[in-house]
Amino acid sequence: MPSTNSIQLSEISIDSSVSGGSPQLAAYLGVPTGEGPWPAVVMVHEAFGVTDIMKRQIQRMAASGFLVIMPDLFSAGGARKCLTATFRAMVSGEGRAYIDIDLARQFLLGRPDCTGRVGILGFCMGGGFALMMAGRGFDASSANYGRLPKDMDSILAGACPIVGSYGGRDDSLKGAAARLETTLVSHGVIHDVKEYHTAGHSFLNDSESGPVLLRPILRRVLGAGPDPVAAADAWHRIDAFFGEHLGAPGDATGSNLSH
To answer: Which of 14-18, 19-23, 83-87, 155-159 has the lowest average pLDDT?
Structure first.
């Protein structure tokens, strides 16, 4: 895999006249090195927004051969103004955030260097969106310590293939991996769900996230913080799962892939 340092991020703005979406949707784009076209991923950020940690996650996935965009779901006013409404949208299944995520998907599909196969990957809050949108036009979904839908049966019936990663030390999501696994099995959804007993919330991040004064509470309540061993295994599973269900660079048809 090329070094993440070789991936340059572009800050872009997606214009849209779609009612209910952000008028000027800010986003970050990571393009792999070499020749495409590439399978693509809409990456949805955690509750703290598009931080430097999240930008490095874009670079990491682009270095693995995926065209990646991260829309800023707080474009319409920043985290203080948008966080509560975005969480409410995640739970309800409708709202500005869903429109913005789909705008990012359409943006990728409109690029000539996209194969036409698009996955969604989310962390924390974004992991919740990755589950909620697994049946909304995406070809694969990666939910990382994401909140489970209230009505999993209706949301996940007919979902695209899902790879899920959870931390056993995350008290906010006790038993989430097992419940998700049971639901996906019952609906025949292709999946790979794993709980890492040594890990807590945000274990895929390479450093602690959130306001400095809040971090001790996050560590105590959520077991939050990096777990390099668990993260390496989770990324290996995600890369392999997306490689299987989104296809390889240069596969512009995806004709041999199915849900």
So the answer is: 14-18
**Could you give the residue ranges of the DSSP H alpha helices within the chain?**
52-63, 78-92, 96-109, 125-132, 152-156, 176-186, 215-222, 228-246
Share of the chain above pLDDT 70, in %: 94
Could you read off the pLDDT of 84-113 as tens digits, one per residue?
Answer: 889 899 988 999 999 999 999 999 999 999
> Cβ distance 46 to 54 under 8 Å?
yes
β-sheet bridge partners, residue 167: 196
| Bond from prior residue into 37 cis (ω within 30 degrees of 0) | yes
Measure CA of the first residue to CA of the last residue in the chain; give whole Å.
27
User: Phi first, then psi: what are they for 107, rounded to 5°?
Assistant: -60, -45
Q: Give the C-alpha separation, 79 to 2, whole Å.
A: 33
- Residue 44 and residue 130 in contact, taking contact as beta carbons nearer than 8 Å: yes
Q: How far apart are CA 128 and CA 138, in angstroms?
A: 15
Among residues 22, 125, 28, 21, the alpha carbon closest in space to that of 75 is found at 22
Return the CA Rg of the chain: 17
Please identify, in words, the CATH class of the domain defined by 4-246: alpha beta
pLDDT in tens, 32-75: 999 889 999 999 999 999 999 999 999 999 999 999 999 999 99
Instruction: Convert 98-109 to b/e letters by CB count within 10 Å (16 or more is b).
Output: bbbbbbbbebbe
